[in-house]
Amino acid sequence: YLPYPYAIMRALIRNQYTIYEPEYYDRDDLENHKKVQKKQNEKYIEAVLQNDIDFVIIINHAYANREFFDVCKMKNLKVFLYTMDSVRWCDYAVDYLSDYAGIYSFEPTDCGNSLLPADIEYLPIGYDEESLYPETSNTYEYDICFVGMLDKRRIKLLSYVADYAKQNNKRIIVYTETRR
């Protein structure tokens, strides 16, 4: 998976925060999706109830539900959301945007978007020496690389990039996850 969640956790640890990370279940188990979602949410609630927590950061929403937010509210815990792609791609996040004390997105189009019912701040991920390190080689197999979710705006942009690559004899590769 992408290194961003680990970069965020390392930054918090460097700043003297203790991290409680609940067990994660297989999100690709589509046959048992509802059961996995329920079990995952139970783990979140267990982590909140059994630990002395100052605040909660959820990355990409990841199955938090009404019961979880109610438990956090009961314990006076602020819950923050960070999305690595558009909040619109995060499982069920839009249903709970008003429950977050703050929402931050790596996707600039989320910010100031009147179609989303919350204020979302742009927060790009910075450099993390343990997961993002400088390339020592100057030779690459590809000239252009895209990694991320595809939406209409990105597909249109990639089509321009593909045209440029073809006209300029550049090699391009696209890594993406298909949405189910």
Written overview of the protein:
The protein is an alpha/beta fold. 30% of the residues lie in helices and 14% in strands. It contains four helices and six strands. A four-stranded parallel beta sheet has the order 1-2-3-4, covered by helices on one side. A two-stranded parallel ribbon has the order 5-6. α3 (66-74) links the parallel β1 (55-59) and β2. α2 (33-50) packs parallel to α3 (66-74). The protein is globular. The chain starts with a helix and ends in a 5-residue tail after the last strand.
Task: List strands and helices in order, with pairings.
Blueprint (H helix, E strand, L loop, with lengths): L3 H11 L18 H18 L4 E5 L6 H9 L3 E6 L18 E4 L15 E2 L21 E4 L4 H16 L4 E4 L5
Parallel strand pairs: 1-2, 2-3, 3-4, 5-6
Helix pairs in contact: 2-3
Q: What is the global morphology?
A: globular
Give a quick account of the main beta sheet: strands, pairing sense, barrel closure.
4 strands, parallel
Total beta strands: 6
C-alpha-based Rg, rounded:
19 Å
Helix share, percent: 25-40%
Structural class: alpha/beta
Key words describing this protein structure:
alpha/beta; four-stranded parallel beta sheet; 180 residues; two-stranded parallel ribbon; 14% strand
Short description:
The protein is built from 4 helices and 6 strands, in the order H-H-E-H-E-E-E-E-H-E. It has helices at 4-14, 33-50, 66-74, 152-167; strands spanning 55-59, 78-83, 102-105, 121-122, 144-147, 172-175.
